[in-house]
Write a structure and sequence with these properties.
single chain, alpha+beta, seven-stranded mixed β-sheet, globular, binds ligand BES, binds zinc ion
């Protein structure tokens, strides 16, 4: 029988000397977790080739050097592994990695790559035995690796985006959210740049371009992250700080100056923060998302720097993932709503606690509108995609990144809050995070957990209707209503203005916060006359706004109404900013209004600046693949 580490510890406890004669010396000398890792209740993940029930990684030592000239990461990934009885191989996920050599416990072995599959890449199979302890893979990443964006120019910058299944394009890994491991890294980068990871981070640039990292809490591979650039650090609180390029560091330190308050509010809601520090890195504008919850170091788009802290809900969101997602992790991408729905709910609660209910209800109202629009759209094409629980097998998990996971998920949690009352719901969530910390959750186990710990009477179950919310289409009838008086006033103002009952000069634009401006602009009728848009623009200089959410809403209307005076701004925005949430509606609006030529000519200039996540979507939208 295989001797597990537990056996050894047991023997150790009795008589240390005995060890030498038990064969335990061929067991790992570094701590490994026990059998529980292999037995962990993971749902089958169709987006990974790994078979954790045979052999699973527990720790990564990553040694890498980053070459901007060739756009290659040359690295060795050495993994501590845990094997089950009779294990003969360990499987990793890879996409376009050049595997140079592989050793198992120091011995060179013959590895093999399996056939390539759409979206998920190839399995890397490495022969092991049940007593194998360590697998080391020397490899290089491809210059067009999907996770990586190499930004050229005077200020070279590299960043990764691993979620959902792109970690395998820069590190061979068991790329499934249910598999967690700790990591250490040693990274060499060009002198004059700082390397940062989802780990302990430097606050000063090193003189020789070498950096060391430690992530002592086990994380899934989609939270592996690296950024390299000429950035500076500024502390904004005892556990919080920002990194940004020198030109943005002051603005970033102001914009995110309330991060410590957000962190304290989050801890007061749902228990202690498990990752010691919470820092934020401002990425180049090509970053394809608003934010990414890389542990200890959120990656964020610079488009949330508005100068007035008006877009910090995004920080609350990424911070909330430190619990929902990073601590309790969706088992597969079909359970993505467990990450994002919980996070939107938690985000709203943080916002309410720091900025008050009026602000959080405005946000909830906007989220409701976005949800209703998206449900309508998806119901036409793929109604099953409006279920919380998804079926993404043989598809890109990216398809699951819709308002369903986020906002239907949010309203489902809000319904439960309303049904059981806030205090019991908060106690439930706090307990949920605590008792499932550093493990995975899938939809079915969550339902069981809910039935045991929250919805434990027939009345409660009937009031919520889990079946309709989780496995049913659209928005169930018992969806909670949100009301925001301020948003209702905006709607009334818009109606009056549209009908000519209110003069442009009488619009309370300057008293409005961003949420109100956004609501007004995004609900303008399509095909507004150029005169009317020009009036608005002249009165409030909207084309020049520094708030990118407001600008985005304006540009979409400008496109839909073919308001040419904003097209220069449209083009410069699309060429500079690679955030997919902005790109998709803008390019789509161009296509839908017979301005495809313009879309294509802008895209030709912009595409080299975009990340693969964005080009994937835009290529499809513009019919280029
Ligand atoms: N984890 C997501 C980003 C993500 C999801 C990347 C799926 C890849 C695959 C992140 O937390 C997120 O939700 N970002 C949002 C911001 C938010 C405020 C809704 C974004 O980037 O727009
Ligand atoms: Zn999120």
């Amino acid at each position: 029988m295989k001797k597990t580490l537990l056996h050894c510890f047991g023997i150790l406890g009795i008589a240390a000397l005995f060890i030498a004669f038990t064969g335990c010396q061929d067991q790992p000398t570094t701590p490994r977790r026990n059998q529980a890792i292999l037995d962990m209740k993971r749902a089958t993940d169709h987006h990974s080739f790994s078979k954790p029930e045979e052999a699973v990684v527990t720790h990564l030592d990553w040694n890498a050097s980053i070459d901007f000239d060739t756009r290659v990461i040359a690295a060795t990934a050495r993994y501590a592994i845990q094997t089950s009885e009779g294990a003969k191989r360990i499987l990793f996920d890879v996409v376009d990695l050049n595997i140079l050599d592989v050793t198992v416990d120091g011995q060179v072995v013959e590895w093999a790559l399996g056939p390539k599959q759409d979206f998920i890449g190839q399995p890397l199979s490495i022969p092991i035995g049940e007593s194998s302890q360590e697998v080391s893979i020397r490899y290089e990443s491809a210059p067009d690796a999907g996770a990586l964006l190499w930004v050229e120019g005077e200020q070279p910058f590299l960043f990764t985006q691993s979620q959902a299944i792109l970690a395998r394009t820069w590190i061979p890994c068991q790329d499934s959210p249910g598999i967690r491991f700790t990591y250490n890294a040693h990274v060499q980068v060009p002198v004059g740049t700082m390397a940062l990871m989802s780990a302990t981070n430097p606050t000063e640039q090193s003189l020789d371009g070498h950096y060391d990292f430690k992530m002592e809490q086990p994380i899934p591979s989609y939270l592996l992250a690296l950024a390299v650039g000429n950035v500076e650090f500024r502390s904004v609180g005892p556990h919080t700080g920002v990194y940004a390029v020198p030109e943005l560091i002051d603005a970033a330190a102001y914009e995110f100056g309330e991060m410590e308050q957000l962190l304290v509010a989050a801890e007061n809601l749902y228990g202690p923060y498990a990752w010691e520090r919470y820092d934020l890195l401002v990425l180049p504008p090509a970053f394809p998302f608003g934010g990414m919850e890389n542990p200890r170091l959120t990656f964020a788009t610079p488009t949330i720097i508005a100068g007035d802290r008006s877009l910090v809900a995004l920080v609350a969101h990424e911070l909330a993932h430190s619990w929902s997602g990073n601590l309790v992790t969706n088992s597969t991408w079909d359970d993505f709503w467990l990450n994002e729905g919980f996070t939107v709910y938690f985000e709203q609660r943080i916002m309410e606690s720091v900025y008050g209910r009026e602000i959080s209800e405005m946000l909830a109202t906007l989220s409701y509108q976005g949800l209703v629009d998206e449900v309508d759209e998806i119901m036409d094409t793929n109604p099953d995609d409006t279920h919380l629980k998804l079926h993404l097998q043989n598809r890109n998990p990216d398809d699951g990144m819709t308002a369903i996971a986020y906002d239907k998920g949010y309203f489902f949690l809000r319904l439960m809050e309303k049904t059981v009352g806030r205090a019991p719901f908060d106690a439930f969530l706090k307990n949920y995070f605590e008792s499932n910390a550093f493990t995975v959750m899938d939809t079915e186990r969550f339902i069981d957990y809910l039935k045991t710990n929250l919805l434990n009477t027939d009345e409660l179950l009937a009031a919520v209707d889990l079946e309709a919310w989780i496995y049913g289409p659209g928005l169930p009838e018992n969806c909670p209503q949100v009301r925001s008086e301020r948003i209702e006033n905006v709607d009334a103002t818009l109606t009056a203005w549209t009908h000519g009952d209110l003069a442009t000069s009488a619009l309370p634009w300057n008293e409005w916060v961003y949420q109100e401006r956004y609501r007004f602009l995004s609900n303008l009728e399509d095909n507004m006359s150029s005169e009317r848009l020009a009036e608005l623009d002249a009165a409030f200089q909207i084309t020049q706004t520094g708030n990118n959410e407001v600008l985005f809403a304006w540009l979409e209307q400008a496109v839909r109404s073919q308001y040419a005076p904003s097209y220069e701004r449209l083009e410069s925005f699309l060429v500079r900013v690679g955030r997919r949430k902005f790109l998709t509606p803008l390019y789509r609006a161009l296509v839908e209004t017979d301005q495809k030529d313009l879309a294509e000519s802008i895209y030709a200039k912009a595409r080299p600046n975009y990340h693969s996540v964005a080009t994937g979507t835009m290529d499809e939208l513009l019919g280029l693949n």
